[in-house]
Design a protein that fits this description.
Two copies of one chain form a homodimer. Chain A has 242 residues and is α+β, with helices and mostly antiparallel strands. Chain A has two domains: 147 residues, Jelly Rolls (Sandwich), CATH 2.60.120.10; 83 residues, Winged helix-like DNA-binding domain superfamily/Winged helix DNA-binding domain (Arc Repressor Mutant, subunit A), CATH 1.10.10.10. Chain A contains eight helices and eleven strands. In chain A, strands 1-8-3-6 form a four-stranded antiparallel sheet. In chain A, helix 6 packs across helix 7. The longest helix of chain A is centred in the middle third of the chain and has 27 residues. Chain A is globular, with a radius of gyration of 18 Å. The relative contact order of chain A is 0.13. Chains A and B meet through strand 5 and helix 4 of A and strand 5 and helix 4 of B. Chain A binds a DNA duplex (30 and 30 nucleotides) through helix 7.
Chain lengths: 242, 242
DNA sequence: ATAATTTTTTGATACAGGTCAATGCATAAG
DNA sequence: CTTATGCATTGACCTGTATCAAAAAATTAT
């Protein structure tokens, strides 16, 4: 895990004392005394898969750093149609900054652990140290790029390409080994149900399932049991992303 | 126009001297001497509809405030499929902050005028005045919300709903009269071609055209000539957005 | 004006992905 | 072990949107 975190926070490899994880975009900017101050207000919270962290249009009361697991941001229409608009991985900060209300629902996609802090505690720090704001801006710009990149997938790719894109995204976010150049026999557990995957890709669960089967029979992936995926050759998977 | 600009920058109604427009998220944070300093480096540039402002993977060399007109951000796949990932209106700031390269193509959707400044000039100011960074973070967070909101449209709405959403978006961004509560007989010129609209909605031009026809025969919109649209009742259009 | 070109609309047909229904396959509970 | 329960897969069929083709309308050039 450490290897991957460095990617996001290479300049200042300071650990957050309360969390033992580098907050992407936050802790690197904190001075030792600020870190200590913040750690008084943080607490670890576990959420089982599926549990809601904060609801759409509810008040924002806290920010959290993801310790491990995957968080999904989504929006539901009145008639029940749902779209997952983003996935967030450790050590992202979640919670809509500077807004009274949430614009989306945040849920634990897998079992997760958060490092939670009150809204006011972080905002107080930000006021005092503009460097934090810079890190937040960088994370937000990166998220915006990722969201727009995903819009290309949603708007213009086929079901087969969408599913390949999703698997590629997970493969390159969940397991840090790939960064070292180990691109063969990458194995990981899918942190999402078929329903969540469908809602992320703008498809139905049946279509997702059929595309998984197609990738399996084509030898691009191996599915041992349910959500356990092995990608023998990541480059071949990438070719399918369109 | 002034009315709408206040919406985005109500706290500090200072004008940017070089541009005569309030830079959403920027000028409000500038002190008089900074404003003067920046205005030395800015220049007005006109672009006809369709002209590229900056290309995908090209170096970022400048930032611009949109003076008037609509800018589209898009991405093209190798095989020619294209997705518009965002529209920007006056007085947004465009240009990917803190990145060497662009991740998307920026083009004039309509005839536009920009107020351009060199990358270094704005970045120098930001280093000196953290308040600017705060404004930028607010704009970026708002853009991220808008992008995610659009992902719901792309992933889960029907062609009919998508076209209604698009018209609603334009109606509420192009013409400032609606903000005063004048929701009847809203008239405006579409700043995008059918091809651009299709690429924004993840549809084909034929489907977009058919949905326009449907809205016209249903009395939701009136099309006098080509791109001249009249919405007699904005609430009725909104109902079609799903 | 008239012609040339581009953009938009309309029609006929095809197919990707959705819908509905049933079956399989885990893990958990009795 | 058997039964329940919740995911995931598979099959048969249907529909919304894409595709292909052509006409109409708008714009630009001559």
């Amino acid at each position: 895990m450490e290897e991957r975190l460095d990617v996001h926070n290479s300049s200042i490899p300071k650990l957050c004392r309360s969390c033992e994880v580098r907050h992407r975009g936050i802790c690197g900017a904190l001075k030792p005394e600020e870190l200590l101050e913040l750690s008084k207000y943080t607490r670890r919270v576990d959420y089982p898969a599926g549990k809601e962290i904060s609801g759409d249009s509810e008040d924002v009361v806290s920010y959290s750093t993801i310790m491990h697991g995957v968080v999904k941001l989504s929006k539901m229409l009145e008639d029940g149609r749902q779209q997952v608009v983003g996935l967030q991985f450790a050590p992202d900060l979640i919670g809509r900054m500077f807004s009274i209300k949430n614009h989306f629902t945040a849920e634990a996609a897998s079992n997760i652990q958060l490092c939670k802090m009150p809204k006011a505690a972080l905002e107080r720090l930000i006021k005092k140290n503009p460097e934090i704001e810079h890190k937040l801006l960088e994370q937000t710009l990166r998220e915006l790029d990722e969201a727009r990149e995903w819009m290309v997938t949603l708007g213009r790719k086929t079901a087969a390409e969408k599913v390949a894109c999703f698997l590629y995204l997970i493969a390159t976010h969940i397991d840090p080994t790939y960064i070292d150049g180990n691109l063969e026999n990458l194995t990981f557990e899918l942190p999402l149900t078929r329903a969540d995957i469908a809602d992320f890709l703008g498809l139905t669960i049946e279509t997702v399932s059929r595309q998984f089967t197609k990738l399996r029979t084509d030898g691009i992936i191996e599915i041992s049991v349910g959500r356990n995926i092995c990608v023998p050759d990541l480059a071949k998977l990438k070719e399918r992303c369109g």
